[in-house]
Amino acid sequence: MRFEAHSDVKGKISSKNHGNMAYMEDLKKVKANSTLYNVYAWDKPQQLGGKEYMIGTLKLNGSLISSKFGDKDLYFRHQRQDDDLKLHPEWEPYCPRYSLDGKCPFQKLMQ
Which pTM does this prediction carry? Predict the structure, then answer.
């Protein structure tokens, strides 16, 4: 999947704030009901004739707000790529691999 910043928000988050919480001030400037991303996905690896399709958008339902719940208790489930490769083993040579002892770089955050 690929997330492409939508024109509603493109360029509104300063790159100089990466790595700290200063971007939170930029997020307060995002207008309610803005579209954040266009979402794209490949139907199979490009090398096997795959095509990229826009599959949807990620849009706010109101305004962004900060909360203790969002900071402490909101987590997203990640699907392992290995599950896809079990269904389509022919994709294996075209899938990027990372040398992190075979673990997701965010795995520690999910435990």
Answer: 0.65
